[in-house]
């Protein structure tokens, strides 16, 4: 059974537009929206001068035409980089957007947001605090608040302290034995798990603890259907072409 108090759509586009667009860009978000998705996940971190912007890796190397560590680059340097061409020439000129730009685009397109706090090394607390403070302000008038998540316990603790009103989900790759204690301490509404780690029994235990579950990254429709049957509340997918917004209505 899905959680009654979970306000989020059941299908979430991973990194904005899954595999159909350069990850963590405005083009990705627009792609997700064009395919009918109602919620997107993206990765947020700090530039050297503490601007919150979107990037998955610690460096800009894989997903732009630049080189270097995000923590060492100022945002006025980052914004000059092409974050689209590596994916496809038709995305040339895409930038790594700020959280402010992303919030504006999500609101304009009617998209709910899962803001994954992705700190660079040794910046967990600062990143968690600054992302949460900014998200609270940017979405202050929104009916559906952004869902903050992180693999970093320290980042999510800082987010809790900075903006306790924003819902939080703790991300796990392997779900540890003390998942209950960690999510309780962080006052989480949800647990976000690698779908490969989930079993029907573990899903039931997590739900019995009062948590909603978001499973990532689910690209096989059959697996998505099974997770839905077990009671997983939402899935995050790269394959928004196969697993659309109405996937579970049709299942
Ligand atoms: O939030 C779910 C998923 O995005 C976590 O993994 O590495 O794609 O950020 P990653
Ligand atoms: Mg992510």
UniProtKB/TrEMBL annotation:
Record PROSITE patterns: GP_PDE
Known EC number: 3.1.4.46
Origin superkingdom: Bacteria
BP GO annotations: lipid metabolic process
Record keywords: Hydrolase
GO MF, one annotated term: glycerophosphodiester phosphodiesterase activity
Name of a matching Pfam family: GDPD
Record's protein name: Glycerophosphodiester phosphodiesterase
Protein's gene: ugpQ
